Amino acid sequence: MPPIVTSLLDTDLYKFTMWQALLHRHPQTQAEYRFVCRRRPERPLAELLPAVNAELDALCQLRFARDELDYLRGLRFMKSDFIDFLRIFQFQRDFIEARAEGEDLVLTARGPQVHVMAFEVFVLAIVNELYFRQFDAESALAEGRARLAAKIARLQSARAEPPLRHPLELFDFGTRRRYSGAWQREVVQALARALGGAGGCFKGTSNVLLARELGLVPMGTMAHEYLQTFQALDVRLRDFQKAALEAWVQEYRGDLGIALTDTVGMDAFLADFDLYFAKLFDGLRHDSGDPFAWGEKALAHYARLRIDPATKRLVFSDGLDVERALALYRHFGDRVQLGFGIGTQLTNDMGLTPLSIVMKLVRANGQPVAKLSDSPGKTLCDDPTFLAYLAQVFGIAA
């Protein structure tokens, strides 16, 4: 059986955009990323250890092909020196370790951030696919296809609803949660056929390989790790969000203008997202907490700054399904531009219980970093003292 990952483009766009920004400004940063399973799975992940190690061995043999680099070079926000870096890039096997602790699978990547940060999506895709190979594929695929057809029919029927000021726009954000690489491809192809093109609501995918091969728009800007890194750089902790946003603006100068809001919660984010940033960024991305309350806070913030929200975009990406996306669209669609990134409910809705796994930055330059989030279950930090200090600095109740 061939390796699960056969191309280094088989990852999310925001890994490349964050990678470039950090390579240009903080290439010396040392980082540690840790795999976390948030809920006990039906079958022990430790049983996957031999297969995971074999897949990591194969991943660390891959290099970017010339035509893949040409594709990345064609994205206007990718810089030539970053493409030159990718031309010689290869994952180093001694920067990532996998082991078993009881029934748990433990994966840790340590080393220069620009050499270990890209492991994340590949690791999650590998663990997911190996795990779901243990279940009956025929019944899972039959159920997945039936559910996908129902989603497409529901979205097609939504066209008959009274039109709102701004169009419904959906994206695939499911690489890290997918049942398998082949299934993600089938899902994206089906959505593009049924709902893509002019007047359709399906606008692209976060997966760079699929975007390239299927002629779709690659989607994505930044994730928590980018902002968290600035907690350990040479700025005051209270200023880390402003420093991260400023560095992003200087790197991309108008491109990739959606800012992630919940590294330390929406309220703390908006306190830093002043008129300067609100004008420079095209919009905001939601990834935790009540999405309706979050959206109302965003619109109220733009109103206070006397910015017409119709000129901005809100992107929702937290555990969405089609019905939730449609409800949010009906609520906000007359007031602001919208986007909906759907992950698990597109690429792993197979009648099986999805894994709840992440691989997150936990240390940078030897210091702990944290994500406080707007959902308690998504808070991530292995140092309670630093977590309490971070909350105190931003005036957040512990």
UniProtKB/TrEMBL annotation:
<protein>
    <recommendedName>
        <fullName>Nicotinate phosphoribosyltransferase</fullName>
        <ecNumber>6.3.4.21</ecNumber>
    </recommendedName>
</protein>
<dbReference type="GO" id="GO:0004516">
    <property type="term" value="F:nicotinate phosphoribosyltransferase activity"/>
</dbReference>
<keyword id="KW-0597">Phosphoprotein</keyword>
<dbReference type="GO" id="GO:0034355">
    <property type="term" value="P:NAD+ biosynthetic process via the salvage pathway"/>
</dbReference>
<feature type="domain" description="Nicotinate phosphoribosyltransferase N-terminal">
    <location>
        <begin position="9"/>
        <end position="128"/>
    </location>
</feature>
<feature type="domain" description="Nicotinate/nicotinamide phosphoribosyltransferase">
    <location>
        <begin position="169"/>
        <end position="396"/>
    </location>
</feature>
<comment type="similarity">
    <text>Belongs to the NAPRTase family.</text>
</comment>
<dbReference type="InterPro" id="IPR036068">
    <property type="entry name" value="Nicotinate_pribotase-like_C"/>
</dbReference>
<keyword id="KW-0436">Ligase</keyword>
<dbReference type="GO" id="GO:0005829">
    <property type="term" value="C:cytosol"/>
</dbReference>
<feature type="modified residue" description="Phosphohistidine; by autocatalysis">
    <location>
        <position position="224"/>
    </location>
</feature>
<dbReference type="Pfam" id="PF04095">
    <property type="entry name" value="NAPRTase"/>
</dbReference>
<keyword id="KW-0328">Glycosyltransferase</keyword>
<comment type="function">
    <text>Catalyzes the synthesis of beta-nicotinate D-ribonucleotide from nicotinate and 5-phospho-D-ribose 1-phosphate at the expense of ATP.</text>
</comment>
<dbReference type="Pfam" id="PF17767">
    <property type="entry name" value="NAPRTase_N"/>
</dbReference>
<dbReference type="InterPro" id="IPR040727">
    <property type="entry name" value="NAPRTase_N"/>
</dbReference>
<keyword id="KW-0808">Transferase</keyword>
<dbReference type="InterPro" id="IPR007229">
    <property type="entry name" value="Nic_PRibTrfase-Fam"/>
</dbReference>
<dbReference type="InterPro" id="IPR041525">
    <property type="entry name" value="N/Namide_PRibTrfase"/>
</dbReference>
<comment type="pathway">
    <text>Cofactor biosynthesis; NAD(+) biosynthesis; nicotinate D-ribonucleotide from nicotinate: step 1/1.</text>
</comment>
<keyword id="KW-0662">Pyridine nucleotide biosynthesis</keyword>
<dbReference type="GO" id="GO:0016757">
    <property type="term" value="F:glycosyltransferase activity"/>
</dbReference>
<dbReference type="InterPro" id="IPR006406">
    <property type="entry name" value="Nic_PRibTrfase"/>
</dbReference>
